[in-house]
Amino acid sequence: MQEYWGKPVPAFGDPFARAVLVGLAPGAHGSNRTGRMFTGDASGVWLFRALHRAGFASQAEQRDKNDGLILHDVLITAALRCAPPGNKPAPEQLRRCAPYLREELAALTDLRVIVGLGAIGTRAAYDALSNIGYAFKARPVFSHGAESQGLRGRRTITLLASYHPSRQNTNTGVLTEPMFDAIFTRTRELLSLSAF
User: Fold this and answer.
1) Going from the N-terminus, what domains does the chain have, and what CATH number goes with each?
2) Cα angle at 137 between 140 and 47, to 5 degrees?
């Protein structure tokens, strides 16, 4: 029997990343077990395959924290740091974890693109950016591939929304691999266009 991590799960990836992925929360038997974001469950299988195809991950496979996986120019985090009961975060839980996401985003001095994985991840990213001084023309409406720009001084960060790679979405065809790949192709395009 494998011992569970069972603690808040920290962000994982490149500390100098220009792109950040914001998910919902650690999966009860994925990140909560392995201690690494999106590792050990079906969502992670989809995510790391897509990141590898886009050149953001050194390998497509993920098993545990010691599998040798390295992320390039991307950091993965979540709106919530602990696995919520029933995989449904309460508003109070999201409020309590919000400062951690704000601090992470504020610390990334080269940040250019945030991919919100699911409506909750996208909303948490928008709220965090707004709280650290980024102005948006309007509150983003969630839809797969939707883009919004936040501006602070001369700096712009693009918020790109994606369906979450959950089994609920991937098994039903709500999210397909070409749709998911398009998100990371667009992320690459936005990174190539961005400059101060």
Assistant:
1) 12-193 (3.40.470.10)
2) 35
Strand order through the sheet with 19-23? 12-13, 74-78, 19-23, 113-117, 155-162, 147-152
Instruction: Let me know: does 40 contact 29? Beta carbons within 8 Å.
Output: yes
Residues 6 or more apart whose CB falls under 8 angstroms from that of 128 comprise: 98, 101, 102, 105
Beta strands 19-23 and 113-117: pairing type?
parallel
CA–CA separation, 83 and 32 (whole Å): 6
What does R_g of the chain's alpha carbons equal in angstroms?
15
pTM, to two decimals:
0.95
Check if the beta carbon of residue 26 is closer than 8 Å to that of residue 11.
no
And the tokens for 172?
Answer: 């039903």
- Which tokens in the block code for residue 152? 């602070």
**Dihedral angle, C-alpha 40, 41, 42, 43, nearest 10 °:** -100
Q: What is the pLDDT of residue 1?
A: 59
Give the span between the Cα atoms of 187 and 155, in whole angstroms: 17
pLDDT in tens, 6-64: 889 999 999 999 999 999 999 888 888 899 999 999 999 999 999 999 999 999 999 88
DSSP structure string for 81-136: SSPPGGG---HHHHHHHHHHHHHHHHH-TT--EEEEEHHHHHHHHHHHHHHTT-B-
The H-assigned helical ranges of the chain are 31-34, 42-53, 91-107, 118-131, 167-170, 177-193
